[in-house]
Amino acid sequence: MSRLLRGLSCLALLISSPLTLAFGLDDLQRQLSEPAVIKGPFIQEKHLRALPQPLLSKGRFVLARDQGLLWRLQTPLRQDYRISAAGIARRDPGGWQALPGKSAGAEQNRLFFAVLQGDSSGLQRDFELSLQGDAQHWRLRLTPRSMLLKQVFNRIDIAGGRYVERIELLETQGDSTLLRMPESRSASLTDAERRDFAE
Amino acid sequence: MPSERLLPRLFLLLVLVVLMIAGWQWHRGAPLSADLMTLVPGATQDPLVQRAEQRMQEPLNREMLVLVGHAERQQALDLARQLAGQWQASGLFDNVQWSLQTDLQPLREQLLQGRLAMLAASDRALLLEQPDSFIEQRVQRLFDPFAGASLVASQDDWLGLAGRIQDSQPRPANVQLDTASGALVAQADDRHWVLLRARTLGNAFDLRLPLQVADLLASSRVEAEQSGARLLAASGLLYAANGQRQASQEIAWVGGGASLGILLLLFLAFRRWRVLLAFVPVLVGMLFGSVACVALFGQMHVMTLVLGSSLIGVAIDYPLHYLSKSWSLRPWRSWPTLRLTLPGLSLSLATSCIGYLALAFTPFPALAQIAAFSAAGLAGAYLCAVCLLPALLEGVELQPSPWPLRIAQRLVELRQQLLDKVPSAGLLVLLLLFCTAGLWQLDSRNDIRQWVSSPPQLLEEAQAIARITGYQPTSQFYLVRAADQGQLLERVQALAVNLDELVAQGKLKGYMALSQLIASPAQQRQAREAVGGLRDHWQPLLALGVPEQALEAELKGLQSLAQQTIDQVLAGPLGEAWRPLWLGNDAQGVAAIVSLQGLGATALLRQQAEGLEGVQLIDRLGELNQLFAATQVSAAELKLLSCVLIVLLMILPFGLNSALRIVALPLLAALCSLASLGWLGQPLTLFSLFGLLLVTAISVDYAILMHEQIGGAAVSLLGTLLAALTTWLSFGLLGLSSTPAVSNFGLAVSLGLVFSFLLAPWAARRDGAHHAS
């Protein structure tokens, strides 16, 4: 469902945004757009209620403030994703393929870029936001506002220090997803990455 | 004479009876209708096609689609919420919906139940042909952070069937769900548009509801504009409201204008207040006409009323017939004059009725109504003029103004001077030249859209809504029949394959078919068997740590899923949009609609159904337009037939030669007005043709008047002039109507009347003193 996707893409952004001053939401948001490019590894744990051990996947991400997000899954399977103004695309042997139903102008993209530009109102419409802690150790809790989202998510917890370090997504069905990004850092785009965004 | 006392009383009794019938007809509300479809021939007797058409028309006539647009998204949402509240409270609507407060639990249940039945065709093909890829894609999806969460939890859907069905559900092209509010929002022209759907309690053909809805919309529009928002609305109701408003305005114009003009003319010409009583036959005529129409058809269409109001000008001819004799008969006395003119009056009634009733034999209920209304109206007016009016005018000493007679005399002289220079034969040649050249330029055009006036604002808004939402319903659709559900779904699928091609070629915007939602029983069986084979391919899932017994349990669950019927799938929340398509069972079998988006070329659409058994394209408007063209031919035949009848009627009093002459002149007048339409660049429509049919009947009167020459050439011409003027007044006013069909009718009749008047003097007996050739 698109609203889930949107929630996730917001999170993906938040993950990789450095939050220097976390006392107020405005301060937090102002920091989001500061670094031009952030890179780092990610570890995704999908805890499914019926599985004894989580589904583990690893990879690297590149968040470019003005271009979008590259999400490179490396294990257990290799798959590249890209979120940009044009929508969500997946790389197959023939190049980047836009995913149908997730095109430009879609709601999730609008929100995605609202977040990218530090517009907290976009998130606040869908979620109740509560921020705790200080710039070094903060924790942001997103509680769904609408009846629709409440039937999908219990809540979303984001925590970090200088950068976002973990995101936990708790679904009403009992499954949860934990994303960790332990070593994010500010960087610049390589030529290959620039090409990926341009295609 | 005893009859002079008896007749008025008997007639008053008759009027009383008719009044009582009218009272009974109207006591449960006005028996009026604004439904255009009651005016056109029921193209089909097939009850299933009729039911399908009703199903497709229903939303057009009961629903209103509104877009609330504002530059600020939140403002647009707030306004939509507020508007929905106000409208719901108005009591006009059954339901005003602006946000989808979906309960996800039933959705989850339907996805689980429908895992085999609702699997999309492409997913089923993958399952059957490439089970390895099927499993591989499932694994990918489990790791895909952007795939979005499935509604059904992973442990209930390890094989991912429910997830695939969820993903394959069609999404509206341009409209997005606003998760916070549940509203549907589109973005266009720098505004956010919130979609609002209102369903009325009654339908567009109630007489009051459309006006109330239109008023409510208008006031909401003003309010919205104050806060910088725009409202766009589309609904059949708005067209109905507009049509009704226009009809009542036009009835007032035509009826009021003609009445005023006629009263003024009566007073100026005859200079007696009591002469205004000559208007009574007109009122009686309208009463008889409407009672007969409601009695025969159960109701009266507003268009009949508009066209019927032109009857005023024809009905007044009967009193004028004998009032105009006051210029020559001194002293003028009502009963003796009536006796003198009675044969002419009766002939005139007969010819007019023949003309009107010829309309009744066309396949158009619209014209049958007008014919019944007019024939009964004329009969009423005639009876009143013959039985009652002389009594009302008894003892009146008519001293008509001398100036109308002077004008008539001057006209007779002018004609004589003209004939002295150019003989009749020469004039006829000139006239025929005029006709030939005019007919050369005449083109025929027929379209049901001429029957409704479509104000540009309504059209523009409907187009804007179609552009912004990408939702373009059309009246064309396919009807698919079959013996049972399995065959039905297979037939729909075969059609869908063809339609997919059209969509890919950009020749069709889209379509909705039950096959998009549910697989046939045979396909469900196929899917069930194929699922069993997944056991050999699910190694990658086991590698992830999914317990084998969980997969086995799911497999068992899948294979024990009962086969789903169309009714079961439609009952669930995912079936909502498809419900109107299912026509259910009848004695012949089952049937469904395949609806289309965006107008397609009829020929192309018909081609898609070729060779497919049980598939039929229903294109009512296209069929109607064809029918119009076909009816033109039969109208021309009717016209000739009515002329033959009139000739037969005339032979008795006038002899064959004169009868032919009396009928030839109106025919020539009709030809001239056809030619004038060509010169004026006006198209020949079915309606103008019917107008000319009518002209023939009316102008036979003028020919009779001129032929009889009671009171001399000038007095006869004056009588004709007065009759033509009053008739022309009412039909000329119809020409101002904003409904193309009505104005076209008015124009054709007006032109025909002018020529009828000009040609009428040639109907005079050959031995007439003024005949030059």
Give a nutshell description of this structure.
The complex is a heterodimer of chains A (199) and B (773). Chain A has helices spanning 2-15, 25-32, 107-116, 121-126, 147-150, 191-198, and strands spanning 37-47, 55-64, 68-75, 79-84, 87-92, 95-103, 127-133, 138-144, 153-160, 164-171, 176-180, 185-186.
Number of helices of chain A: 6
Strand proportion of chain A, as a percent range, falls in 35-45%
CATH topology of the largest domain in chain B: Multidrug efflux transporter AcrB transmembrane fold
Number of strands of chain B: 13
How far apart are the termini of chain B? 45 Å
Total discrete domains of chain B? 3
Structure report:
The complex is a heterodimer of chains A (199) and B (773). In chain A, β2 (55-64) and β3 form a beta hairpin. The two termini of chain A are 26 Å apart. Chain A contains six helices and twelve strands. In chain A, 25% of the residues lie in helices and 44% in strands. Chain A has one domain (2-198): Lipoprotein localisation LolA/LolB/LppX (outer membrane lipoprotein receptor (LolB), chain A, Clam), CATH 2.50.20.10. Chain B has three domains: 2-29 and 241-441 and 623-763, Up-down Bundle (Multidrug efflux transporter AcrB transmembrane fold); 56-99 and 181-234, 2-Layer Sandwich (Alpha-Beta Plaits), CATH 3.30.70; 104-165 and 467-619, no CATH class. Chain B has 29 helices and 13 strands. In chain B, the strands form three sheets. In chain B, strands 2, 3, 4, 5, 6 and 7 form a six-stranded antiparallel β-sheet that branches. In chain B, strands 9, 10, 11, 12 and 13 form a five-stranded antiparallel β-sheet that branches. The longest helix of chain B is centred in the first third of the chain and has 35 residues, at 236-270. The radius of gyration of chain B is 35 Å and the shape is elongated. The relative contact order of chain B is 0.13. At the A-B interface, α1, β4, β6 and α5 of A face α6 and β4 of B.
